[in-house]
Structures are given as C-alpha cells and as structure tokens.
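ugh ok fine here u go
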Amino acid sequence: MCRLFSFPIVTAALVLAGSSSAVIAEQTSTVEVNGVTLHYIDEGEGRPVVFVPAAIVDHRAWEPYREAIAREHRFIAYTQRYFGTEPWPDDGEQFSSETHAADLAAFIQALDAGPVYLVSWSYSGQITPQVALEYPELVRGMVHYEPHVPSLVAELPEERQAAIEEEGNKYGPAMEALEAGDAEQATKLFIEAVFQRSPGGFEQEPEYMRTIWLDNARTVPLQMSMTPPAISCEDLASIEQPTLVLRGEHADVYYESVADTMAQCQPQAEVQVIPGVNHDGTFNAVEDFTAAILDFLAEH
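structure:
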C-alpha cells in the first residue's frame, strides 16, 4: 500500500542567479512506498517529468530545473531511499539499483502519475531503464545524462575496455580514503575524479552542490559495495519508449562509451552532445540541458 502525505518542511532548495545561490523554505511532500518514506517536490501541471537523482545527491540537485520545467509540465523530483538527510530505515542492506528501481515504480504509482517521462543522471541511468523494462506502462520516454551502466562495457571492443580500465585509476585516491573509513574525504576525491578536477578542486564547486554531496557522503560506502545490474544491449533493444542520451563534449572514455553504446542498442534512442562540459553538465550547463529536455518533450 502507498500513502501520500504533504506538509511544509525546511529544506535546501536553491535559487540560482549566476554563480550565487540562496537557501529558501519550500513545500515538500512525502510518500510512503515499499515500507519507506520518500521526500519529493511536485510542481506544475501537464505531462509529468520525474527527475531521478544521481549518486551522492538527492532531489535538491534538480532544483535549477524546477521553474523552467514546471512552467510547461509537471515537475517532480524525489530523494531515493538512503539518500538525503533523513535517518535510514535500516543499516543499508537493501541498497541496490534494483531497490531504487522498485521504489521509483511504486513512487510513480503512488502519485498516480504514469506514464511519465524520466530524467536520469549517472547512477540513475541504470535505474530508469530497469523501470522501463519491468513496468513499461509507467514510462512515456526517457532522458539520460551520461548514464552509469557498467555492464555495457562488456559490449565494447577490447581496446576500449582497456582504456576504460586505465582511466579508472583516477579513482584510486578516493578508494584509499574509503578504505580508511573517511567517507567525507572519499566523496571529495570522487567528485574531483569524476568531474576531471585538479587536486583540491572540490572546494571550487558550487556551494549548493558541495552541501548536497557532503550531506550524502554516508552513501558512498554502500554505493561502492553494491553489484551493478546486468543490463545488456539486448535488454535495451526491447525498450520501445523514445529516449534521448546526452553526454558532455569532454566526457571521459567511460561515460562517452556507455552513452554511445546505450543509444546504439536502443532503437528509439538518439545521442546529443552538450558543449563545454563533462560529467558536470547537469549543474554547469543547466540552460543547455533544460533546452534539450524541453525539445524532447515537445517532440515526443
């Protein structure tokens, strides 16, 4: 059974003006699905667009998109199980993309919102296809930004797999910090690695994103110990919903390869490149990403 609740709480919502940001109070709702309570934002009317967070973030990461999307559509952004600042329902033993996919499906059903458009980034790029595969009636279309789907690496030529393995060495310092039990330092180092920053670059990131990442640092050990889903090219080929796969112009070898492979495998998918960014495009190219989403919605 799914139950809906709505009440005002104070959370870190961001109003962006150039490089500055302000924290404001906002109306946040909660919904109970699969025995847990999920927090979410629901604004606007029209076709529902559900924004699914990446790793180490929560619904606040999508705040820069709320106003533009809600102007024409129903904007929905939620925080996945174990993420955000609320107490965990357990010790994290249920942390998996399968759990998050089941929660997402139940979330859509609880809001009576389906079929919806799903927008993913990185980790959530392995969650949304699972929902499309298992609950196709809930999904109208998908937009992925640099999806993180490790199983697709097996579909690549050996030389590209070797390049990805070598590139993965950049995560070594973060893994060392994690093994030392310092999840906060590991988070900072992961951010610097994935966004191709110089040492110490974490401190130069937008303040609101630094806050969100550090609030979610406790999820990093769970993320690193989980087994990714075995999503194959054959699986993706069975997805009939229109799909837009976006990647940054400066995407690293892994994310470029996965994005291109996902689009090649799925017959109803296309790839677009956002100029001037890498994996950070969701917060460093908000206007371009928003325009791509709105164009996709207008076409489909």
